[in-house]
Design goal:
Elements lengths: L1 E3 L5 E5 L2 H4 L6 H22 L7 H4 L19 H14 L4 E5 L2 H4 L8 H16 L3 E5 L7 H5 L8 H16 L6 E6 L1 H10 L10 H25 L4 E12 L2 H14 L7 E10 L18 H10 L6 E5 L10 H17 L4 E7 L18 E3 L6 E3 L1 H12 L1 E3 L1
Parallel strand pairs: 2-3, 2-9, 3-4, 4-5, 5-6, 6-7, 7-8, 8-9
Antiparallel strand pairs: 1-12, 10-11
Helix pairs in contact: 8-10, 9-10, 12-13, 13-14
The structure holds beta-D-fucopyranose.
C-alpha cells in the first residue's frame, strides 16, 4: 500500500536544549548532582527485583541506569558545539523541519541581564537550519529554568509570567529578523506540572495539588502573554504549544483534565496545536503487548484517536513529538510507519495534520532517567561523541524524501 501525504507536509525530528546541548547551568543541572546517587540506588533496587530486572543489553551500555554518572548530563551530545554537523545529518536523512529549544538559563543567566553571545548562538543555530532547508520550530521553554528564577519560587511565583514575558520579548525581537514561522512557547505544561508539583519526582519535587493548578495557571498566563508579544513582532508567525495528549480509552474525565483543560484555557491564543503522543491508557490496565525499552506501551492506533479529539479546535496540527526508546533499533522503523499510517487515516478524514517531528534526532539525556533510554534516529557514543545514523533513520528518510509511506 502507498499512503501519500499532503503537499508541503513537514518532516523532521525534535530535540531540547538541556537534553542535547551539554554544559548548561540551570535548575536541573544542580538537581542532578544532588540526586544522581539516589536515582542509581533506586534503579539498583528495582533491578534486584526479579520482575523488574533491567535487561543485559541495557546494562552492557555506557552509561547504564545502575551508574550514578548515568544521571549527570555533563556534556551530553555536545550539540551546542556540533549543531552544524547534526543538522547536516538531519538534511542527509531527508528532513525539511527541525524542532529545538532555546535555553533560557543561557540567554538570561542573571535576572534581567541578557547574554548577547548566547543570543547570537541561537541566531547561528537558526541560520544553520535555514541554510540546510530545515524549517525551524523554536521552543521557548522546555522545562529547565535559570537558577535565579528557581530561587524566586519558579513557576509558583505570581510574577513568573512577567519574568517569562521579559525573556520572550528579548528573544522574539532578536530572532524575528529571520521571519521564524513556528513558535512553541511551552512544552507539555501538564507533564511538567504533574511531575514537578504533583507526583514529586522532578525538581522541585512538590506533591501538592494546589501548587499543581497554580503552576498550570501561571503557564497559561505566560503562554497568552507570549502569544501577544510574538504576534506583535511578526503578525504572520504561527504560535502554539506542544501538548502531551494521551489516548484514554473510555475515560472521559481523564480526557478532559489531561487533554483538554489546558488547551481550553488558551483557546483563543493559538494558531496551531503541537501534539506530543506517547501514551495510551485503559481503565483496567493496558495490555502492553508490545513495549519500548522503558516499558511504555507501543500503541500506534492511539494517535488516531488523540488527533481526532483535537479536531474540534479547528486548527492546523503538527505532531511535535512521537518516538520510543529502542537501543537495538529493532522496533523504531515499524513504530514510525505504524504511527504514520494512523496519521494518514485521520488526515483522510479531514483532520488538518501538517507535519511530523520524531523524538528525537539524537540519543539524549532523558530527564530523571538519564542517558540510558535511546530515542535517537542517530546513535551517540557517549565516550567518543561519535554520531552513527541508525538503520531506522534511513527507513524514515525514504518517507520524508518521497512524501509517501509504503507498507
Ligand atoms: C516528552 C518530552 C521530551 C522527551 C520525551 C521522551 O515528554 O517533551 O523532552 O523527554 O518525552
Amino acid at each position: 500500500m502507498e499512503y501519500r501525504f499532503p503537499k508541503d507536509f513537514l518532516w523532521g525530528a525534535a530535540t531540547s536544549s538541556y537534553q542535547v546541548e551539554g554544559n548548561n547551568y540551570n535548575d536541573w543541572v544542580e538537581w542532578e548532582h544532588v540526586n544522581s546517587a539516589r536515582l542509581a540506588a533506586e534503579a539498583a533496587k528495582r533491578h534486584a527485583n526479579a520482575h523488574m530486572r533491567i535487561p543485559e543489553y541495557i546494562l552492557n551500555n555506557y552509561p547504564n541506569p545502575l551508574q550514578p554518572e548515568n544521571y549527570i548530563s555533563g556534556r551530553v551530545c555536545d550539540h551546542y558545539n556540533r549543531f552544524k554537523e547534526d543538522f547536516d545529518i538531519a538534511k542527509q536523512i531527508g528532513h525539511n523541519a527541525h524542532r529545538f529549544s532555546i535555553e533560557w538559563s543561557r540567554v538570561e543567566p542573571e535576572e534581567g541581564k541578557f547574554d548577547e553571545k548566547e543570543i547570537e548562538h541561537y541566531q547561528q543555530v537558526i541560520a544553520a537550519l535555514c541554510e540546510r532547508g530545515l524549517e525551524p520550530f523554536v521552543t521557548l521553554w522546555h522545562w529547565t529554568v535559570p537558577i535565579w528564577f528557581r530561587d524566586k519560587g519558579g513557576w509558583l511565583n505570581k510574577d513568573a509570567p512577567k519574568y517569562f514575558e521579559r525573556y520572550v520579548t528579548i528573544i522574539s525581537r532578536s530572532l524575528n529578523y529571520r521571519h521564524i514561522k513556528f513558535w512553541i512557547t511551552i512544552n507539555e505544561p501538564n507533564v511538567f506540572a504533574s511531575n514537578s508539583f504533583l507526583k514529586g519526582v522532578w525538581p522541585p519535587r512538590y506533591k501538592n495539588i494546589f501548587k499543581y493548578f497554580k503552576v498550570l495557571k501561571n503557564l497559561a498566563k505566560a503562554h497568552k502573554k507570549s502569544y501577544e508579544i510574538i504576534k506583535k513582532e511578526n503578525p504572520t508567525a504561527q504560535v502554539g504549544i506542544s501538548k502531551n495528549n494521551i489516548y484514554f480509552e473510555n475515560i472521559p474525565f481523564a480526557d478532559y483534565f489531561w487533554n483538554k483543560y489546558f488547551l481550553n484555557k488558551i483557546k483563543s491564543q493559538q494558531d496551531f496545536i503541537g501534539l506530543n503522543y506517547y501514551f495510551h491508557s485503559r481503565l483496567f490496565g493496558n495490555r502492553n503487548e508490545d513495549v519500548t525499552d522503558m516499558g511504555w506501551e507501543i500503541y500506534p492506533e492511539g494517535i488516531y484517536y488523540v488527533l481526532r479529539g483535537l479536531k474540534k479546535y479547528n486548527l492546523p496540527i503538527y505532531v511535535t513529538e512521537n518516538g520510543l526508546a529502542d537501543i537495538k533499533d529493532e522496533k523504531r522503523g515499524k513504530f514510525i510507519k505504524d504511527h504514520l499510517k494512523w496519521i494518514h487515516k485521520v488526515i483522510s478524514e479531514s483532520v488538518d495534520v501538517r507535519g511530523y517531528l520524531y523524538w528525537s534526532l539524537l540519543d539524549n539525556f532523558e530527564w530523571d532517567k538519564g542517558f540510558w533510554p535511546r530515542f535517537g534516529l542517530v546513535e551517540i557514543d557517549y565516550e567518543t561523541l561519535e554520531r552513527k545514523i541508525r538503520p531506522s533513520a534511513y527507513e524514515y528518510a525514504k518517507i520524508c524524501k518521497s512524501n509517501i509511506l509504503e507498507i
